[in-house]
Design goal:
hypothetical protein yedk fold; five-stranded antiparallel β-sheet; five-stranded mixed β-barrel; 13 strands; about 35% strand
Length: about 230
């Protein structure tokens, strides 16, 4: 599960990283993004556009928007089969902009779960594999929402959690965003664990447990040392 993440890069950095040609939503940095909040996403075709989606996918057939809180993630193993996600996989894919994410590790000798921050060694922003939908209420109001696809963990994440968000590598972004590609046989191989050698993970303050805490300090290593590996 991916239930909390970070977006701290500047708009210029994100524009350059994802070859953005049109910015339709701007934001402030957020160090503790939670489900239900608006998040930045990249849509393709006719040039990459930066847009806002609510985190927590609301299927077009849903009667109540609250279902979105149960749809913050989609499993890569079943995303092509489930009614909720199958059509979005074919036609409504996006990249969800992030700089890092959190997972909580449970150790046998400690009663509390340890919050861990995971990011790329390159310190560059990256894109989670995302799906989006547009939902209309009975009153005619529209909500554009999205979900993050998860997969099995790589060697770095395995001791921390049994799932990790799919990060689409730079070389695969174009095909993921190309809406003319609708064959799951082409898309599903992209939904794999990101290479562990290119990532780092370290313990952070339990302040991150509350989404109300949202400042650069909460992603600092707990031991105040520069992270270089798993801990």
């Amino acid at each position: 599960m991916c239930g909390r993440f970070v977006r701290k890069s500047t708009l210029t950095e994100i524009k350059d990283e994802f070859d953005i040609v049109e910015i339709l939503w701007a934001w402030e940095p957020s160090y503790n993004i939670a489900p239900g909040q608006d998040i930045a996403a990249v849509k393709g075709n006719d040039g990459n556009k930066l847009v806002a989606f609510r985190w927590g996918l609301i299927p077009f057939w849903a009667k109540d928007e609250q279902i979105g809180y149960k749809m913050i993630n989609a499993r890569s193993e079943t995303v092509a089969e489930k009614r909720t996600f199958a059509q979005a996989l074919k036609k409504r894919r996006c990249l969800i902009v992030a700089d890092g994410f959190y997972e909580w590790q449970k150790l046998e000798d400690r009663k509390i779960k340890i919050p861990m921050y995971i990011t790329l060694k390159s310190k560059r922003p990256f894109g989670f594999a995302g799906l989006y939908e547009t939902w209309k209420s009975n009153e005619g109001n529209e909500i554009r929402s999205c979900t993050i696809i998860t997969t099995k963990p790589n060697d770095l994440l395995e001791p921390i959690h049994n799932r990790m968000p799919v990060i689409i590598p730079v070389n695969d972004r174009a095909i993921w965003l190309d809406q003319s590609v609708d064959d799951p046989l082409q898309l599903l191989p992209l939904l794999k664990p990101y290479p562990a050698r290119d990532m780092i993970a370290y313990e952070v303050s339990r302040q991150v447990n509350s989404p109300k805490n949202n400042s650069p300090e909460i992603i600092e290593p707990l031991n105040q040392e520069e992270p270089g590996g798993l801990f």
